[in-house]
Design goal:
3-stranded antiparallel beta sheet, 599 residues, 25 helices, mainly alpha
């Protein structure tokens, strides 16, 4: 029981405030307890150095001494000194920039404490434990060593499920706060959340300026060139992504943002004309509009447990936390109070999904996003992303009489598909078109793709005179049908690979030449890594499909019977006013609530 008692005492010391531990520590070093800690400072130090996890008095003594708290503010001072030292070594002018960021961080913390009673001190307060996190002005990606901007670090060891922060909703920027700031009669109740919040960001930063309630928060929001989402890239940088599906998404996003800006603000008779005192054109420029959306896409969080349902919000301080696809931590909202008494107010809350060591960066999850999603909206891509996918276009033109006639070639005879009209009618009923985008993953592909292709590959031999609506396309129709399906997916993936002007080996060679690679801009380096990872993923998809064909015996002679083309191109009869059909990326953005229509 003696060993157990010391373990309990050590745990209490770890959870106690620094003042209490410091006061207790000298008692251990006294002569009355010389057996545990020695009779002198030197012998105590020797015992502590010898403690290596073997248990007993020396380990208990070491654990207790390790729990002695530092003076308040000591961790933050050390962190600031480290950052300034590193930056100054890289760039003599960097120290000034770091000082500005440190000052902005300090003003943000004071604002949160004053306006929201948010406790962020590293010392214990009345009924408050020391805050476990500190702002780092600069963090880096562990694999690529690229800058990832500000982040939050653990000031001390953090336990799993420990409360990390509480931020009142009153300090957040939401659609509600935008309508309150700009006028409920000006921004209608049904206005899109992103549009309303974008207007408030520009208004607070540029129109209100120093007078803004949110001034300390505005000062820590990054500029466009600190985030670099692809919709802000130059044409030269985008050229490094040639062949990638993200190009079309980026261009569509650029057009969408421009259209939204004109329709809401800039066109004749819109808000800039109706209310020039609130929406002055000198501040509500398209560049500032892009800045606002850069921050919205990269920082706004969907809070789902609100009293009035879910809402989109920008949460000061919490939005400094960086993303990890392996994190299980999510920001969410709750009503303030306990199980017995609720105040009616709401706050944003975060708990640690795992234990963190001191100085380790804290992460949350932005959701199961592919690298294309991350690069388009957040300006970065990950080397290791279990949710990474590449959108592959599957395009099959049912061989109606009209399509066969339009595609007539003397050297190639194409038969009319007797089920073509029925397939088109079926697709219309379920809301599908002949050209569909599906996300392909490294080792899997969506079941919706297989269901779609099983339908499109049906022949009279498969139907046996039954109507198409009677079949369950979630299951294999026939061996010949399944072989045609898998081979067509392989062809579609190969077609996507052929779109890239370079090979995976070419990209790998560029990355290996570190001297030349560092001469590329940040955007260009991200593009090279991204396109290489897309090619690697597509190759793995092909390998997985071909293995499945072999293991299921679908490579037997006579089973390869594709009834259409899936080369990833829009075939005759599939173009509608020159517009591509709805994409997989568009589906994902729609679920996020983004006002984006990629056409």
């Amino acid at each position: 029981m003696k060993g157990f008692s010391r373990a309990v005492l050590c745990l209490c010391a770890l959870q106690s405030v620094s003042v209490t531990v410091t006061a207790f520590a000298p008692t251990i070093n006294s002569s009355t307890n010389s057996r545990a800690c020695g009779t002198s400072a030197s012998s105590s130090a020797s015992l502590l150095q010898m403690a290596g996890g073997e248990g007993g008095d020396s380990e208990w003594s070491k654990a207790l001494m390790d729990s002695v708290g530092r003076a308040p503010g000591e961790f933050d001072k050390e962190l600031q000194a480290q950052v300034k030292g590193k930056m100054a070594g890289l760039n003599p002018n960097a120290s000034s920039a770091v000082d500005q960021k440190l000052s902005a961080n300090a003003r943000l913390v004071k604002w949160l404490e004053k306006e929201g009673a948010v406790y962020l001190d590293d010392a214990s307060g009345w009924g408050e434990a020391p805050h476990p996190m500190a702002i780092s002005t600069e963090t880096v990606d562990e694999l690529t060593n690229e800058s990832s901007g500000r982040g939050l670090l653990a000031r001390r060891n953090v336990n799993q499920e420990e409360e990390l922060l509480k931020i009142p909703m009153d300090l957040c920027i939401t659609k509600q706060s935008a309508r309150k700031a700009l006028g409920t009669d000006i921004l209608p109740p049904k206005i899109n959340e992103y549009l309303a919040m974008a207007c408030q960001l520009i208004y607070e930063k540029h129109v209100m300026g120093e007078k803004s309630f949110y001034k300390p928060y505005m000062d820590v929001l990054p500029e466009v060139n600190e985030v670099n989402p692809t919709f802000t890239w130059s044409d030269d940088d985008l050229a490094f992504l040639d062949g990638s599906p993200i190009i079309a998404a980026t261009q569509s996003m650029q057009m969408k943002l421009k259209n939204e800006y004109n329709m809401l603000l800039a066109d004749e008779g819109k808000l800039c004309d109706q209310h020039p005192d609130i929406f002055p054109r000198e501040y509500f420029t398209f560049d500032n509009w892009v800045w606002a959306f850069t921050n919205l896409f990269s920082r706004a969080i969907r809070l789902r447990n609100m009293k009035q349902g879910e809402t989109l919000g920008m949460v000061p301080y919490a939005d400094l936390i960086n993303h990890s696809p392996y994190s299980g931590a999510y920001l969410d909202a709750r009503e303030v109070g306990d199980w017995l008494f609720k105040t009616g107010e709401e706050e944003v809350i975060l708990y640690a999904d795992r234990g963190y060591r001191k100085m380790e960066q804290i992460y949350i999850s932005y959701g199961p996003k592919s690298n294309a999603d991350l690069l388009l909206l957040y300006g970065f891509a990950l080397e290791r992303n279990p949710f990474n996918s590449v959108d592959v276009t599957v395009s099959i033109a049912p061989r109606t009489k009209e399509i066969v006639k339009a595609a007539f070639d003397e050297n190639f005879i194409m038969d009319v598909d007797p089920l073509a009209e029925e397939k088109i009618a079926f697709l219309d009923r379920v809301g599908r078109s002949n050209t569909v985008d599906f996300p392909c993953y490294a080792d899997r592909y969506p079941t919706e793709m297989l269901e779609y292709l099983r339908l499109m590959m049906m022949t009279p031999e498969d139907t046996m005179t039954k109507p198409l609506r009677d079949f369950d396309y979630t299951r294999t129709i026939s061996a010949a049908n399944e072989a045609a399906v898998l081979y067509s997916v392989v062809e579609a993936v190969k077609g996507q690979l052929d779109r890239y002007p370079t090979t995976e080996e070419d990209d790998a060679e560029v990355i290996r030449d570190k001297g030349t690679f560092r001469l590329l801009s940040y955007n260009q380096r991200m593009a090279v890594r991204h396109r290489r990872n897309e090619k690697r993923l597509l190759k793995r998809t092909i390998a997985a499909l071909e293995k499945q064909v072999r293991t299921r015996g679908l490579d037997a002679e006579g089973l390869k019977r594709a009834e259409g083309s899936t080369l990833g191109t829009v075939l005759p009869g599939d173009e509608k006013s020159g517009a591509k059909q709805r994409t997989a990326l568009e589906d994902r953005l729609d679920k996020m609530g983004l006002p984006v229509d990629l056409r």
